[in-house]
Amino acid sequence: MAPPTLRPLTAGEILDTSFSLYRRHFPALATVALVCTGLPLILRLFLEAGGGMLGNLTLAFLYGLSLVVLNLIATGATVFIVSESYLGRPISAREALSRATPYIGRILVCSLLMAFVIGLGFVFLFIPGIILAVGLALAIPAVVLEPRSPSAALSRSWELTRGSRWRVFGLGLTLLVLLYIPVIAITGLVAVILPQAAGERFGPASLSTISAIAIGGVVQMFIYPLFYCVLTVTYYDLRVRKEGFDLELLASALQTA
């Protein structure tokens, strides 16, 4: 297969490319989201209907375990789907899930390190927390797509984003406005409207609570892949800008041929 045409992208082009990849490979991305996010959501709804987390500790433990493990797999699988598609080598959801499973430990440790470092930044001063969050934003793509340890992936992200952090911050802020604020608005609206439309309760939790969790969870399933689309495209854009990754890929393809 001919190598893809890679070039430096503007912030708008990164978003446009990410949305295009999301639409083009929606079946694979949606399958990963449904498989990895659907089970924890169902368990959460059962817990809410049965009296909350303390009402069934065994189910609560299963919920927490499935949420962590499946979200880690979903993260890796989504990055693989977007990465391979961006490089002109589309893969199926099954292959992406299979490839992502061995990365559970590395993604978990990398995520915990990111949370710890960024949390320290927010504890001491708010602005350093934002700077750290932006500088480490590409650690997950780095730990999945490169043979690096979690700590090395953080350093890799910090180095890649150097000189481009305002642009990465702008992309993150745009995603927040376009994606997450509507989710909060939708779930909040459901919580306000449903108690007036129906006074009945669904188990110990109210109908509005169950509905808000269900709607928020479903919407989250389809937002989650788009978030990693943007991160992965940004990762490759910075590699093209700083490391001539497009030339490296072309040389590799020519050698293979």
Number of strands: 2
Individual helix count: 11
Q: What portion of residues belong to β-strands?
A: under 5%
Estimated structural class:
mainly alpha
Number of domains: 1
Could you give a short account of the major beta sheet? 2 strands, antiparallel
Describe the structure.
It is built from 11 helices and 2 strands, in the order H-H-H-H-H-H-H-H-H-E-E-H-H. The chain has helices at residues 11-24, 26-49, 57-86, 93-100, 104-124, 126-135, 139-145, 150-161, 165-197, 207-243, 245-256; strands at residues 201-202, 205-206. The longest helix has 37 residues, at 207-243. The N and C termini lie close together (9 Å). Mean pLDDT is 83; it is low at 196-203 and 253-257.
Write the SSE topology.
Blueprint: H1 11-24, H2 26-49, H3 57-86, H4 93-100, H5 104-124, H6 126-135, H7 139-145, H8 150-161, H9 165-197, E1 201-202, E2 205-206, H10 207-243, H11 245-256
Antiparallel strand pairs: 1-2
Give the tags.
single chain; 257 residues; mainly alpha; two-stranded antiparallel sheet; 11 helices; 2 strands; 2% strand; globular; disordered C terminus
Short description:
The protein is mainly alpha-helical. The chain has eleven helices and two strands, in the order αααααααααββαα. It has one domain.
